[in-house]
TrEMBL record, chain A:
Belongs to the ABC transporter superfamily. It comes from Nesterenkonia aethiopica. This is Dipeptide ABC transporter ATP-binding protein. SMART domains: AAA (SM00382). One of its GO terms (molecular function) is ATP binding. InterPro entries: AAA+_ATPase (IPR003593), ABC_transp_ATP-bind (IPR050319), ABC_transporter-like_ATP-bd (IPR003439), ABC_transporter-like_CS (IPR017871), Oligopep_ABC_C (IPR013563), P-loop_NTPase (IPR027417). Keywords: ATP-binding, Nucleotide-binding, Transport. It comes from the Bacteria. Residues 23-275 form the ABC transporter domain.
């Protein structure tokens, strides 16, 4: 894209600039209706969970999506999987209109997008053995059945994610959290997907195990050429794993750019506040980092503020922010896209 | 003689440490066997000081908090030995009635999940006021006034109007503030915060930690912060105890431990976390898993995951011993680990 062609000196160029676009999301909208009454359910409003999100995911790339609870990042994941149908917008997958396909065709296309869930304790059926869990995708997609048979393939997958293939007959409760997450990853890999949506894949894990799973995800990416959408609330984790990062606030992207752009020169005040609030594991920086402590809580997504959604908590808000919705565009002086009228790169937020 | 009055706010100049835990042993007697949840815990806490107890799930950090508070479920929990001295008096041998008076008034606690810790069917103002009614014998009206005051102190906007609201009407950050209001209502000497910000978003976490820190200075409380977050610890703690599998692996001053850890576990943790202010190529993960408490490996509990482990570590359990002034480590090779980081840190 032209956006990345003229990056200023000193900032590394986007290594995926020429890569093929696997997922092209444009203007995605999902509103959940709020109803009142028992028999005649009148619609009295809508929770604007996702309200106009656009981005592109390129082959081999990891796009991180960060945001606080309620910002719509998990709804976005569901829309991308077509577990929820969007109200508006388009999703093109490998050039094909993903929202138009139906029936058998959809099933075939769905193989290419798989998901890894947050909680390895509830996302695995406790009554199924590991072999059944990882082999289930083949039963649902009989034409994708591996030539060597399901069990050998399951053993191969177990080996790939660093589990002992001999444990194929064990049940989820016999595994620890980190191992269960590996089972979830093996299941996601079973059908040779191109895109994996990771919805908070390491949030439920202990610190020492978190690193193991993140390293595994990175290894699998380089080995299998996967593209990831990595949804998480932990900014440090997202920084580590992502090539590009999108920051969500109340159903909209506030800012999107490469990892360096977002973390070293965030332009949207929300990104700046978010980054400054992350504690850094270094006591010598105590009191030296300028912390922007935001007032209040995120507003109710059923009734977002007019204009810029962040303006009620923003220290720079003016009348313009109240009346005009800032578009997500590249603004003068910055290379990433930011949805702020006054977007200005700020380099000393995390330093 | 030690003072026997429960602290009333003024009595804050006791002798010796505010809280002293000596060789505490807690076990859980389950069908699967005896789980040693805490195995020989020692620490001291002074007024105005922040001690962080750092550990992963199953390390015994929450059991520590519950044991000090005296809210451990017994059975299956069982205190097998040790002392918890508050201003010189052992809480474990104290009559239950006396301990009950201290609980909440002199030693109080903030829990992780405010929604499940608050009573959903009572207004928050009533729940805060309960502290004053029960411990101070205040009349309802007076207690209500006090609870409005407390809500204001912890930064809840429009406290007079919100005093009658129920917990579900507040956001997560506000609920945690209400928990804090209850905990500090009676001006405690020791505040135990068990993962106080884990359930909160980053921006709200920053608000709550700032509030806790302010209140600690204002009331000169000893704060025990129980957490797994190395970032939060670096921000607020004075000293740290790192726990693993029910044992303290290392204790040190906060600056010392981040600069020069003397235990392979602490070192591994510090190397395995991604940082928001830097880009590392690859995380150095600690291999393996924490041991089951019912099935502890012989020798050092960390030996199966330790890159420095030798035969000695597999047979002989290392005791917590001093490595440098104010720095202890339970590793046979603590001195070696301690100097590992020196080479790269010194020339800066």
């Amino acid at each position: 894209m032209s956006l990345y062609d003229h990056s200023p000196a000193g900032r590394p160029a986007d290594p995926f600039a020429d890569a093929e676009v696997v997922l092209d999301v444009d203007g995605l909208v999902k509103h959940f209706p709020l109803t009142q009454g028992i028999i005649f359910q009148r619609k009295i409003g809508a929770v604007k969970a996702v309200d106009g999100v656009s981005f592109q995911l390129r082959k081999g790339e990891t796009l991180g999506i960060v945001g606080e609870s309620g910002c719509g990042k998990s709804t976005l994941a569901k829309l991308l999987m077509r577990l929820e149908e969007p109200d508006e917008g388009s999703i093109r997958f490998g050039g094909e209109d993903f929202l138009a396909v139906k029936g058998e065709e959809l099933r075939k296309l769905r193989r290419k997008i798989q998901v890894i869930f947050q909680d390895p304790y509830t996302s695995l059926n406790p009554r199924m053995s590991v072999g059944d869990i990882i082999g289930e995708p083949f039963r649902l997609h009989p034409d994708a059945k591996p030539a060597q048979g399901i069990r050998p393939r399951v053993k191969e997958l177990l080996d790939l994610v660093g589990l002992n293939p001999d444990h194929i007959n064990r049940y989820p409760h016999q595994f620890s959290g980190g191992q269960r997450q590996r089972i979830g990853i093996a299941r996601g890999l079973a059908l040779n997907p191109e895109v994996i949506i990771c919805d908070e894949p390491v949030s439920a894990l202990d610190v020492s195990v978190q690193a193991q799973v993140m390293n595994l995800l990175e290894d699998l990416q380089s080995e299998l050429g996967l593209s990831y959408i990595f949804i998480a609330h932990d900014l440090s984790v997202v920084r580590h794993i992502s090539d590009r990062v999108g920051v969500m606030y109340l159903g909209k992207l506030a800012e999107i750019g490469t990892e360096q752009e977002i973390y070293q020169a965030p332009a949207h005040p929300y990104t700046q506040a978010l980054l400054s609030a992350v504690p850094v594991p270094d006591p010598t920086l105590r009191g030296q980092r300028e912390q922007i402590v935001l007032k209040g809580d995120p507003p109710n997504p059923a009734n977002p503020p007019s204009g810029c959604r962040f303006r009620t908590r923003c220290w720079m808000a003016t009348d313009l922010c109240e009346t005009q919705v800032p578009e997500l565009i590249t603004r003068p002086g910055i290379t990433q896209q930011a949805a702020c009228h006054y977007a200005k790169a700020n380099e000393d937020v995390t330093a | 003689m030690d003072q026997t009055q429960p602290a009333t706010g003024q009595a804050k100049n006791g002798h010796g440490p505010l809280l002293e835990v000596k060789d505490l042993q807690v076990e859980f007697r389950t069908k699967a066997g005896v789980a040693q949840a805490i195995n020989g815990l020692n620490f001291t806490l002074n007024a105005g000081e922040t001690l962080a107890i750092l550990g992963e799930s199953g390390s015994g950090k929450s059991v520590t908090a519950q044991t000090i508070m005296g809210i451990l479920d017994m059975p299956p929990g069982h205190i097998a030995g040790g002392e918890i001295r508050y201003r010189g008096e052992d809480l474990l041998t104290m009559p239950a009635e006396k301990r009950r008076k201290l609980r909440g008034a002199s030693i109080s606690m903030i829990f992780q999940d405010a929604l499940s810790s608050l009573n959903p069917v009572l207004p928050v103002g009533w729940q805060i006021a309960e502290m004053f009614r029960v411990h101070r014998g205040m009349k309802r009206k007076e207690a209500r006034q006090k609870s409005i005051e407390m809500m204001r102190r912890v930064g809840i906007p429009a406290a007079e109007e919100r005093v009658g609201d129920f917990p579900h009407q507040f956001s997560g950050g506000m609920r945690q503030r209400i928990m804090i209001a209850m905990a500090i209502a009676l001006d405690p000497d020791v505040l135990i915060a068990d993962e106080p910000t884990t359930a909160l978003d980053v921006t709200v976490q920053a608000q709550v930690m700032r509030l806790l820190k302010e209140l600690q200075v204002e009331y000169n409380m000893g704060l025990i912060l129980i957490t797994h977050d190395l970032g939060v610890v670096a921000d607020v703690a004075d000293k740290i105890a790192v726990m693993y599998a029910g044992r303290v692996m290392e204790t040190a001053d906060v600056y010392e431990i981040y600069r020069q850890p003397a235990h392979p576990y602490t070192r591994g943790l510090l190397q395995s976390i991604p940082r928001v202010d830097g880009q590392e190529d690859r995380l150095k993960a600690i291999p393996g898993l924490p041991p089951m408490l019912t099935d502890m490996p012989p020798g050092c509990p960390f030996n199966p995951r330790c890159e420095f482990a030798t035969d000695r570590c597999r047979t002989e359990r290392p005791e917590l011993r001093q490595v440098a002034s104010g720095h202890t480590s339970a590793c046979h090779y603590a001195e070696k680990i301690h100097t590992l980081e020196e080479a790269q840190n010194e020339p800066v």
